[in-house]
Structure formats: structure tokens, C-alpha cells
Amino acid sequence: MKKKYLKAEEMDEKFDNGNDISNYLDLDNSSRPGLEIKRVNVDFPTWMISLLDREAKRLGVTRQAIIKFWISQKLEHESFLKTN
Questions:
Q1: Residue 3, pLDDT score
Q2: Is 70 exceeded by the pLDDT of residue 1?
Q3: Which of 1, 8, 27, 48 could anchor a disulfide with 44, C-beta 3.0 to 4.6 Å?
């Protein structure tokens, strides 16, 4: 199916009116600025890995998920404190 193109104003109007605009989006080449993934390596002592794994299992998530969640919570908290 060939993609259709609209001017930004036309797309805004369709979206604001509750119309489906998915046929006008190029989702294969889309990105989320500021949310790109960059891999980092972090070394943890084994006792910390054990506790992380235990907590991840309790919550039913992966080790990586819990690490990312906890770090994001800390960063959001610190950012909030600096802005208030």
C-alpha cells in the first residue's frame, strides 16, 4: 500500500478531529528523540547481583528492568529536587 502524504496542518486537523492518521505515518523509520538506546557496562559485586536477582524474581521482572527502573526513579527524584 502506497503511503499518503499530508501537510502538517491537515494531519493536525485530522488528529484533533479523532480520525485515524496511522496511514500517514512512516512507522518503519520513526524514532523517539531522547529515548534512543545506548548500551553501557556496569560491574556489580556478586552480593549485589544476588539481591538484584532476588528482587527481580519477586517482582516478576528481569534484572535489567529493575536496574533501569531504580536508576530512573533516582534520576527523576534528583531532577525534581533541583527544579523545586
A1: 61
A2: no
A3: 48
Q: What letter does residue 29 receive in the DSSP assignment?
A: G
Please identify which residue in the block is written with the cell numbers 557496562: 41
CA separation for the pair 30, 1 (Å, rounded)? 18
Rounded CA-CA distance 77/84 in Å is: 11
C-alpha cell at 62: 528481569
Cell of 42: 556496569
Cell numbers linked to 27: 512507522
Which domain, by its residues, includes 12?
1-30
Which CATH number covers residue 56?
1.10.1220
Tens digits of residue pLDDT in 4-57:
678 889 999 999 999 998 888 888 888 888 888 889 999 999 999 999 999 999
Instruction: Indicate the residue type of 62.
Output: T
Is the pTM of the predicted complex or chain greater than 0.70?
A: no
On whether both 43 and 25 belong to a single domain, the answer is: no
